[in-house]
Amino acid sequence: MLPLADSLAAIILVALTAYVLLGGADFGGGVWDLLASGPRKTRQRDLIAHAIGPVWEANHVWLILAIVLLFTCFPRAFARMAIALHVPLTLMLIGIVLRGSAFVFRSYGGGGGRVFAIASLVTPVLLGVCVGAVASGAIGEAGGGKGEGFYAVYVAPWLTPFAFAAGLFALTCFAFLAAVYLTVEARDAELQEDFRQRAILSGVWVLMMAGLGLALAPHRDLVDPRLMVLTGAAAVTAFWALWQRRYRLARVAAATQVTLILWGWAVAQYPYLLPPDLTIGNAAAPPVTLKLAMIAVLAGAVVLFPSLFYLFKVFKGEKQKIESHETKVRGSS
Amino acid sequence: MSDLLAARSQMAVSLAFHIIFAVIGIAMPVLMVIAERRWQRTRDPVYLDLAKRWARGTAILFAVGAVSGTVLSFELGLLWPRFMELAGPLIGIPFSLEGFAFFTEAIFLGVYLYGWDKVSPRAHLLAGVLVAVSGAASGIFVVIANAWMNTPTGFTLLNGALINIDPIAAMQTPAAFPQALHMTLAAYAATGLGVAGIHALLLLKNRTSAFNRAALTIGLIVGAPAAVLQPISGDIAARYVARRQPAKLAAMEAHYETRAGAPLKLVAGIEIPYGLSLLAFHDPHAVVQGLDSVPRDEWPNVSLVHLSFNVMVALGTYMAIVGLWAGWLALRKRDLTTRRRFLWAVAIAAPCGFVATEAGWMVTELGRQPWVIYGVLKTADAVTPMPGLIVPFTVITLLYCALGAIVGWLLYRQIIRSPQA
Lengths: 333, 421
Hints:
Helix content of chain B: over 70%
Oligomer: heterodimer
Largest sheet of chain A: 2 strands, antiparallel
Strand order of the largest sheet of chain A: 1-2
Helix content of chain A: over 70%
Order of helices and strands of chain B: HHHHEEHHHHEEEHEHHHEEHH
Order of helices and strands of chain A: HHHHHHHHHHHHEEHHH
Number of strands of chain B: 8
Strand content of chain A: under 5%
Largest sheet of chain B: 2 strands, antiparallel
């Protein structure tokens, strides 16, 4: 069995993965809202709003869960990141505030569509920049206020070509996920075709950005090679399924692909939380906290998973979707 | 502006903004569930209209509350990394529980808002109840974390490090119960009377609106009992503060000299003999520690804490009186919705709860200064080393001002404006 600290680090990774797969796709939806085009422009935007509406609040909470567990279980890592990444994290928060409130304002007739779309573009880049800065090892060395001057301590760790490549990579991944999910959400063939094209196009962008990121990588151990092979297999499956219009399979493959990218990074970095010096072990809170956090997670999961299952069954279930589509068709005819 | 002051101001703005949405997010689901239950029983469409309008309002406020809460969970570290490094293993547990409670709230709010035609009426009402319960729970967990900062327990302090930590003992901190009770009642009192007050004002313009009458009644059902109970919970809270945080109590009452049989100062020149000893210890001869028992550099900002405390008490007293009045009229089976003087009193109470909540937070937060963890860690030692904190402070302040204005306008359009019919 994994030690407690490792297990909790894995749980944080799972929460982060859920945030990327669910919340990330909501950001991706904002990208496609911004890029909506062609004769079905309005219908594309309606589909996106319809898909995000009931779930985005719940999807967003994964980020809160990840951050709360991080500061409970690995307070040193949290403090160090909060100091070195103050600037991009603050900008990311502003993006989160703008996106969330603009989305709900627009749903209730207050306008703000542009803000929603632009914040959806900027926020994932900043999230990726932060992850990129951690992966590159800059937060380990810079932490604790070493180095000289504002730029060296608070800007240099993340203002790197690699971190920004990671940011753009995150953005393209989110857009890719959203497009693939929307092919399943869309019930009429034309809209499905719109998002199929977008999915394939953004899938190519994901590959190019992955290549750029690897080319700019400050060191070679960025992703675990075994997981990289699996990621490639998932990517090929996703493209093939999109090509064959097997959208449900494409959704599974795309989600698997993005999950494996995240986990590939995590496995390569293990046992470091903030490479090159802060490991899971030496950042961990005392065992009693870890034990209680684990109990809280398990108890929380007992409440959370049935609730989440219910939420997605009500709004994303097969039967429901067809019904709502039919009512829409009936309503419009 | 020093970096410390900028950090404190940013935290203050973020909390002051978030607390309004949190308070409404805790109490509003109760109102909407009552309205929906009444609709299911009476089939009076006014109640359905109310439940739907309140749900729309809750959606807007919850979204802003959720994102401003996210900002806070990051800001804890962005502004106070030393505090989080020290306190994370202790207060992280209530924060984790809060995370799950908040998750449950978000899930069932989604079901409630978008599920009117998708789940059975019973499941829909149950979803609303779960939103209300998990909302209250998440508020209580956050307040427990704050209570620990006031009366830190569950560790041994050794050379600035916390050892032998016990998060369960930390959650049972003496301030936890009085603070959680006081805050939860504040949420119901402020929101209930806030809603009642808005509709009282509308009733003064148009007495016949069934919509406004129903809204006023439900607002009072939630707000009035909480407002009446609040002074009792305030008494419990004040007595714990007298024992555990004498400097805070002294600042609240502007009580400079330690003495037995301390009088209660009301306004300049007017005192109630033995009043403070009676209030703080329920004993007219009890010794109340004054600010002279605290080193000068460990005094909170006395004038600000004292002023905030007086504002809170004055507004809370007024709300309790309005609550009693409502109860009295209801007991005598009088129609609450046609008495002009009563409606005016309720309308005036509408903003009181929110102002009192802000003032109460200022008492507890400013009254704890200069400590972030009372007696353990000074706020000045917890702040991030990053310079230039005035920049994020300014940006966050402007952002929240704009958001507040938009939310106000949207709420006006969505909920408050009565149906034309």
